[in-house]
Design brief:
Number of domains: 2
Largest sheet: 3 strands, mixed
Strand content: under 5%
Order of helices and strands: EHHEHHHEHHHHHH
CATH class of the largest domain: Mainly Alpha
CATH topology of the largest domain: Rhopdopsin 7-helix transmembrane proteins
Number of helices: 11
CATH architecture of the largest domain: Up-down Bundle
Distance between the termini: 65 Å
Length: about 325
Amino acid sequence: MDYGNRSLVTEFTLSGVSHSYEVQITFLVLFLVLYLMTLSGNFLIISAVHTDPHLHSPMYFFLGNLSFLDICYSTVTIPKMLVNILSHRKTISFGQCMSQLFFLHLFGGTECFLLTVMAYDRYVAICNPLRYHVVMSYKCSYWLVASTWLAGFLHSFTQAFLTYQLPFCGPNNIDHFFCDVHPLAALACSDTFFIDMFIIANSGMISLSCFVVLLFSYVGILITILKIQSSEGRQKAFSTCASHLLVVTFFFGPCVFIYLRPPVNYTEDKLVSFLYTALTPLLNPIIYTLRNQEVKAAIKKSFKIKLSLQQPKHIKNKNISAVLKHF
């Protein structure tokens, strides 16, 4: 029977992380805590970048956008997963599934391009510092961020459109905790070879282009750092890139494992997906705040102002001093 591009399935069932009730409750608490920490950490960075004039530079403009993407990225998958754990019917409608897939790749693809732009920003700052504010002007920064969103949209639209064309006539159980390309392709009741290859080629082209820019940027940075005479200067230059390198490793590693291979579902896919949908968005603000004194100072300043506005005058100074000791 030829189903064309129409699907007989109106909803899917998400198998989640486990069928055991005790394990599900454990993951409910774990994911809820991680999600709340992700929201708190990234909102803190966005607030600090927005309110502190010292952070009004291209580097921190990109960092604020990265935090916004991390919030959106984790929100696409985790809340629905938490609801499903608490629900008896762990279902998601066909339209909601396609929407989740679209926004997952929109925010994920945009983050890939943004991390690449951030590497180029560090390259200009270290290798050509005298022309940094000319090359990375505010106008240029806005255009670069807009370009990452456009590229992310084109990638996401391609992935979602190709998946939407697949006919689904049963079964409808997705062996995952969110809708993604490979688990959905496994349920299609037609030959998906050419669509699979196109999806892999699309992901591969993005990964290759980002990798080339990252490679050339950091090779140039490394050559420049090695030419710096003082050890203090080399350490300072390297520290500005170390945080970004950690974030790139945590984000690109799992994504390459998932998307740059044939659409075969492995048992470890759920664990790897957990890394880049729940853990990486949490680690990003931690990595940047722990290694960046300016961000830490801005967060302290913002936190101090909020405390002083909320507390009575006669206890402000005492409580603020006590709180700031923990930073």
